[in-house]
Recover the amino acids of this structure.
């Protein structure tokens, strides 16, 4: 990336400080980028973007208080020209399609090499889309029907499923998502019906198998 007199301002969001610091170090090693701010959840991310007006946001998807998926949707609605690169440990079609549908310009895995992260940043800033090779392969398989056991879920259903798997109560999910407890119960009932699962333990196991949550670090 060529050095510019006016560097591209970047806001980085991830709820894990160590991960955020590592990504920041990589970005700071690239010419032409300047870190304008860091956030540990979606609400902070939106506040910092409003305050600093960056050209690029790089955000995790799984964060407390407001997840990256919802933050991407809100940022896209407020800032149509903002470049957004999702960075995640999840490679399932549900997550990738959700991020792109909500407005992300690219999707890169957290285990990407510095070279790949740099290429992803360059591509997104150039107005192109970028998908990690591992992610694009999963999407192609899904479109071909090779992953026939995947059942499409809405963004809200996926949010509720992930929070159930993380051990959140109905009231906690309702508070975090701004819904009534009754609405959360309806989403849970529809999830069970759609997935053919009859209890919370089954939903949790499904989320783990689909890698929607990390069993070793569910939060």
């Amino acid at each position: 990336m060529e050095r510019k007199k006016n560097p591209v301002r970047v806001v980085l969001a991830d709820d894990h400080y160590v991960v955020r610091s590592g990504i920041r170090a990589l970005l700071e090693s690239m010419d032409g980028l300047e870190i304008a701010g860091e956030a540990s959840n979606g609400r902070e991310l939106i506040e910092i973007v409003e305050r600093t007006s960056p050209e690029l946001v790089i955000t995790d998807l799984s964060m407390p208080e407001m997840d990256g998926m919802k933050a991407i949707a809100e940022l896209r609605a407020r800032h149509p020209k903002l470049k957004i690169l999702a960075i995640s440990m999840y490679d399932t079609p549900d997550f990738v399609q959700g991020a792109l549908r909500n407005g992300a310009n690219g999707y890169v895995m957290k285990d990407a090499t510095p070279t790949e992260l740099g290429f992803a940043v360059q591509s997104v800033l150039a107005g192109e889309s970028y998908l990690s090779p591992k992610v694009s392969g999963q999407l192609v398989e899904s479109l071909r029907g090779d992953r026939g056991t995947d059942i499409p879920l809405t963004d809200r259903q996926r949010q509720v499923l992930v929070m159930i798997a993380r051990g959140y109560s109905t009231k906690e999910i309702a508070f975090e998502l701004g819904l009534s407890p009754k609405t959360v119960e309806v989403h849970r009932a529809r999830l069970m019906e759609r997935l053919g699962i009859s209890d919370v333990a089954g939903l949790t196991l499904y989320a783990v198998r689909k890698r929607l949550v990390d069993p070793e670090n569910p939060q």
